[in-house]
Amino acid sequence: MYPDEFDYYNADGVDDALDLLDEHSEAGTTELLAGGHSLLPAMKTGLSSPDVLIDISDIETMQGISADGDGLSIGAMTRYSDLVDSEEVAEHAPALAAAAGQVGDVQVRNRGTIGGNLAHADPAADLPGAALASDATLVVHGPDGEREIPADEFFFGMYTTDVGPDELLTRIEIPSADGAHGAYAKKPSPSSGYAMVGVAALLETDGESVTAARIGANGVMDHGVRLSPVEDALMDGSLDDDTIEAAANRAGDDLDVDMMMSDLQASNEFRAQLLEVYTERALTAAIEDGSSSAAAD
């Protein structure tokens, strides 16, 4: 199908994008175009019919990865492939690197962006759980300047975030997890490759004990969620299989099964089972990542 007619603008900077948002705020529906992998198919099928399309994919100040001793700053228009190829992301944000490597296929990763993924907030997208596990802060710009939003407070619900209609997600800040071990495990949809359930894990260890843990999940609820009971069960525990299994079995303790996602591919009850299974797989993979790193040292 062909999309309905719309006005197209190519923003040449953050201020220009904000000016365009303001200029067309009363002109009907306005959408921002990043990588386009969610918006363009929706437009072709008639699920989305914006009157105005503002292309932000070429804004140079919203691209790239920079690292210092405190962590990473990632431009919102940075592509998945850049995250996967970045040694800095692998070192400082291993859970994010692992999740980015499982997004779609090569073509998708070469075009899709981290900012588009997070701002779109598809419940089945791969990066919300990783952003939560990585303790990310999402930085938005609007008429009143810059605003920082912790990942724990960013996702409101299906396709809904704390980004206002006159704001733009410009970068993602991630504190360094150098020395921590990260992983991402997901059950992909056989039809789309999106996550029926995806779990990102970031573990800090001291010898055979877990000293800190952050676990995030997507595909289960209508937005990305932290799995705090799993984190609590891991603290100061050993890295043996029994501890990992017991912690994973608590993945749904804070979640209402009746409120979990349910569709033709997986009922809410089945997702609850998958959540425990893939939490255990993510934890095991994170520990194996730590073992591999130790062996390489």
UniProtKB/TrEMBL annotation:
Keyword Translocase: no
GO molecular function: FAD binding; oxidoreductase activity
Pfam families tied to this protein: CO_deh_flav_C, FAD_binding_5
The entry's keywords: FAD, Flavoprotein, Oxidoreductase
Classification via InterPro entries: CO_DH_flav_C, CO_DH_flav_C_dom_sf, Diverse_Substr_Oxidored, FAD-bd_PCMH, FAD-bd_PCMH-like_sf, FAD-bd_PCMH_sub1, FAD-bd_PCMH_sub2, Mopterin_DH_FAD-bd
Domain FAD-binding PCMH-type: 1-179
UniProt KW Oxidoreductase keyword: yes
UniProt name for this protein: Xanthine dehydrogenase family protein subunit M
